[in-house]
Write a structure and sequence with these properties.
Helix content: 40-55%
CATH architecture of the largest domain: 3-Layer(aba) Sandwich
Distance between the termini: 34 Å
Largest sheet: 7 strands, mixed
Bound molecules: S-adenosylmethionine
CATH superfamily of the largest domain: Vaccinia Virus protein VP39
Order of helices and strands: HEHEHHHHHEEHEEHHHHEEEHEHE
CATH class of the largest domain: Alpha Beta
CATH topology of the largest domain: Rossmann fold
Strand content: 15-25%
């Protein structure tokens, strides 16, 4: 995890929009003493978890997105790289044999309903559908969950790419897929072993310390988490920004090959923070005092004001859960960027600060840092905000550190 100069060197094993900067986690972890329980309630690809584990602490994470949960589990898994590459070669052979018996009419994931099949027809050509159906089926039969997650993560790398993937889309890795090709530029059987090799080279896999408990990654909603009260020492998390990324939109292309239906994914998407359509009926008095402090929201259309209220509601519930699971004396670190809606600057960081203070936290420190170009978001394809306005949208992130009051 560190190179010969002692610098942090951690490589992601799968693309993920808006990953946390690893150095933020690294610098905020305690060096010695007894192992702590460190938690990320919106763990995404698992940056907090993988570094926590490498530093000898117990890592616990939640996320609602099944792809995030799978990647985070894979990144934290203990599997010998040589074993993984051997297994991948035998899976590929089985998939090639299985593909010989498939035809376009049957080349879908097992149990895929009509709507899911139509979605697959739109995004994948027939030849690749056959290879993907065979590969995903063979991987799903691997018994060891760590090995299965790692191989599925490699499989997913073939789909979640910017340009040259096995689907007909571009920009899937930025969660803004748009159909570009008539025939996919890459075939799954040709690239599967490369994808596994990539992961085998990047993943840390071994902690060499039997005392470190395995990471726990739970598929769960951060607004109501299956974590005991007062059981966590430190939270390090980067919540979704207001209206920034529809994670499921790109991830759907991979998830349909893992047994998820389009209808099920729609439900997951609507459980994402800020995505509910109905307005909250509680805490409105609190939100009306917060709103004027985070930006000039009065000039926004009601639709956008309501969107901010929903975000406040969901983040309020998440922060209340964070306080519940943290022990007295624990700390919570939130990393968040600010946003712009129709040219109006919205200070998400101020919103989180006010919500946290109303839920039993005191502010310990707040610092800002520029987000490196490579980690900035791309605008959604139908975004009205474009050009300079969009470029300015998320150039900085704020690190908020709270103590329990
Ligand atoms: C900014 S990303 C986290 C990135 C992560 N720190 C990393 O390094 O990969 C925010 C995450 O919040 C998750 N999320 C959104 N709504 C959620 C909810 N209600 N409960 C739990 N996680 C949620 C998204 O799925 C996404 O993975």
């Amino acid at each position: 995890m560190t190179d010969s100069t002692g610098m942090l060197n951690i490589q992601p094993i799968h693309p993920f929009p808006a990953r946390m900067a690893p150095s933020i986690v690294w610098e905020n972890l305690p060096d010695s003493g007894k192992p702590m329980r460190i938690f990320d309630p919106m763990a995404g690809s698992g940056t907090t978890l993988v570094i926590t584990k490498a530093r000898g602490h117990q890592a616990i994470g939640c996320d609602t997105d099944p792809l995030a949960v799978m990647i985070a589990r894979a990144w934290c898994a203990d599997v010998a790289p040589e074993r993984l590459t051997r297994l991948a070669a035998s899976i590929l052979n089985s998939a090639i044999a299985e593909a010989a018996h498939l035809c376009p009419e049957t080349a879908y994931p097992r149990g895929a309903d009509d709507q899911t099949q139509k979605f697959i027809d739109f995004w994948f050509d027939e030849a690749n559908r056959i290879e993907l159906a065979a590969l995903s089926n063979c991987i799903s039969q691997v018994e060891n969950p760590d090995e299965r997650n790692l191989l599925m993560t490699a499989f997913s790398r073939l789909i979640i790419t910017k340009k040259l993937g096995v689907s007909l889309a571009m920009d899937v890795s930025h969660s803004r897929p748009h159909r570009k090709y008539d025939k996919a530029p890459v075939t799954p059987f040709n690239k599967f072993l490369h994808a596994v090799d990539y992961i085998a080279r990047k993943a840390p896999f071994r902690t060499n310390n039997p005392a470190v408990l395995p990471a726990q990654v739970i598929k769960s909603d951060a607004r109501s988490m299956p974590i005991d009260s007062a059981s966590i020492d430190l939270i390090i998390t980067s919540p979704p920004y207001l209206n920034a990324i529809d994670y499921i939109r790109g991830h759907k292309l991979s998830l349909v090959w893992m047994g998820q239906s389009i209808d099920g994914l729609r439900k997951i998407r609507s459980s994402n923070i800020g995505a509910e359509h109905s307005l909250p009926t509680t805490e409105l008095a609190e939100f009306s005092t917060i709103l004027p402090q985070i930006g000039d929201v009065t000039s926004l259309k009601p639709y956008y004001r309501n969107m901010i209220i929903r975000y406040l509601h969901d983040m309020g519930a998440t922060i209340a859960e964070c306080r519940r699971v943290l022990r007295d004396g624990g700390r919570a670190i939130f990393v968040i960027g600010n946003s712009a809606i129709h040219g109006i600057h919205i200070k998400n960081s101020e919103a989180l600060t006010l919500l946290a203070q109303n839920r039993g936290f005191t502010m310990e420190s707040t610092t800002s840092r520029p987000i490196p170009e490579s980690r900035r978001y791309l605008p959604p394809p139908n975004s009205e905000a474009s050009g300079e306005r969009m470029k300015n949208r998320m150039r900085e992130e704020v690190i908020l550190t709270f103590a329990t009051a």
